[in-house]
Amino acid sequence: MSIKLTGRLMVAALLSLTAAGCQGEEAQTPAGDSLSTQEAKVEQQCVQGFNGIKNCATGSAALTRTGKGIAVSSLKDVKADGFSSEFPRATSWNLLADIGGLGETKQGFTLAARDGDQVVSALRVGMGEGDRVVLAPTFTGASGPSAYRVNLYQNGRLMLSQQHPWDYGVNSDWYNIHIRLTRIDIGFKNHASLGMLDPISTGACVWLFRGAPGAFSLDLNGKPVSGDQLEIVEEVEEGHYPYTGFSAIDVKAAASDFTILGESTVQGK
């Protein structure tokens, strides 16, 4: 996968998810859930996944245990079809999966971190023209959309760091993901600062992509800079409320193949 950073994108048009913010407030359950909603929750298909995580199908999707892991089928609509991973309140989550056929309908896939029913951050991987995909994050820990920073690492060494406003996105030449089965390694966390020299603030929401050496490439003054890990980090400004944990990740996609190969969390204190 080769990733290039582009200019201003209409991220609001790409994102169909609305994030409520990376905040420390506990999620509130809406009062007076209708009987039909309660019945839908009861009838939802759920399986016990990796490391005690409960996976529940959403939309028209179905979950099946296989020799490799958990297959997610009937993924037709990126707005509805997928699965939710539910777990005790955590500070970090990671997913390893094989995914294929995203290029057939070019709807892509989305991820959303939730604390109860409150969406705290979202990420859309949208299909662009040709081999392009757009990584469009949403961070709204403040009263309006948050800026974010893209960090590129190689073997743990920071190669490049670039800050961008909320309506910029990462444009990628991720051609593998359009035409064949592709291994994805994605994570989400709310960061705990390692000290005064840590460039990432405590409570910042972070999406992570991991790959082979040189898998990612960002543009710096017309020249590519490559690495094996890409971070998309919320910029925490004055007035933000640091987020302290989350309890679910929603994954939705329009794909012909999707198999969960591994999933894990780091439980919150």
Task: Describe the structure in your own words.
- By secondary structure, the chain is mainly β.
- The chain has one domain (2-15, 44-267).
- It has helices at residues 11-14, 35-43, 176-179, and strands at 2-8, 46-48, 54-58, 62-65, 70-73, 82-100, 109-115, 118-127, 133-139, 148-154, 157-164, 168-173, 182-190, 205-210, 216-220, 223-227, 229-234, 246-253, 257-267.
- It has a 17-stranded antiparallel beta sheet that branches. A two-stranded antiparallel ribbon has the order 15-16.
- The two termini are 35 Å apart.
- Residues 5-21 and 23-42 have low confidence and may be disordered.
- Keywords: Signal.
Brief sketch in words of this structure:
With 269 residues, this protein is mostly beta strands.
Helix content: under 10%
* End-to-end Cα distance: 35 Å
Oligomerization: single chain
Proportion of strand residues: over 45%
List keywords for this structure.
two-stranded antiparallel ribbon; 3 helices; 51% strand; 269 residues
